[in-house]
Design a protein that fits this description.
Number of helices: 4
Strand content: 15-25%
Largest sheet: 6 strands, mixed
Structural class: alpha/beta
Radius of gyration: 16 Å
Number of strands: 8
Length: about 180
Amino acid sequence: PDQGVVITVTIPAIVSHFATRPAYGYLPPAWFAKVTPTLPTLVLLPGEPGSASDWSGDGDADNTADAFAATHHGVAPIIVMPDPNGLRTVDSECVDSGFGNAETYLVDDVPAFARSQFSASTAPGSLAIGGLSAGGTCPVMLALRHPEVYPTFASYSGFATPQYQETSRAQTIDTLFGGSEERF
């Protein structure tokens, strides 16, 4: 096809058991070829408030990827747009906490899903993560904590440190890290 397709997906939380809202995936034109090339994956996280669909809606990620694909024989990255906040909180800051295992979901379940369901590349460096605002804080933290998973990241207006909703540092540490400065 001339354009990629955005689909709604459910990413099984096999390792994390993290309860989430729907996720979205962008499959570039080359993905539909008779012989599908092995494609890299870009994971994009929304800000807060926000939802996984924001990157395809107002973020225009699918149209940007289509424009890239148009100049590269239909080849562009697969884009996975998961819900990093889940059902138990509006702001996970992408960490494992009392609200659920958001970090484990993003580090284990999301890459596994992209590779198993979309035949995404498993080559070193084939997975990147980016995000906006609160979702922009997550790629920095995840890339620093898990460089073997996300060696490449982008933060668009991300915070310098995790900040649960609009609370103080102490409240963030209490809420998300069980009061542990070390875990923070």
